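User: I'm putting together notes for a lab meeting next week and I want to include a structural view of one of the chains we've been expressing. I don't have a solved structure, so I'd like a prediction I can at least talk through. The sequence is below, exactly as it appears in our construct file.
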Amino acid sequence: MFSLVQGSAISPKIRFLNEIGWSDWSFVALPAYQMQDVPHAPTTFPFRLEQYTADTQMGVGFQALAGLATGGSIIVSYNLQMDSTGGGSGPFVDIKGFTTDDLSTEVIINNQVKGKIYFFRYRAKNAHGWGAFSPVNFVRMANKPS
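Assistant: Thanks for the context. Below is the predicted structure for the 146-residue chain, given as structure tokens.
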């Protein structure tokens, strides 16, 4: 059996009980330990990068996760997926970051069809695995009017 008491808001102290009795309270561990999990689902969605989108070349970017959204562990990869046939419901194919870890938050995709709408989503991976996907967003493959 053990007893846990907060030494401060984030630094717990602990003691144990055996057949002889209770131990003394532990010292507060510094730095304090933090629970970790897979990254949270991004709350933002992928977006079109105007400076890289022209003719049949499309630029797509997304926001990196920070703070608590990382799951308390360093992000090691971002996985960007694209749906070009299902209207945003899939099937999605991996564009980057799944088979090989990749931390970039921008990608240029070549050989796309002018005027077509493509759907994107992304997620992050840390030491504990992949988090859930972001909301889906669309990008129209079109040139900016001159």
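A couple of points you could mention at the meeting. The chain has a mean pLDDT of 87. The first strand starts at residue 2 and ends at 6.

User: Perfect, that's what I needed.
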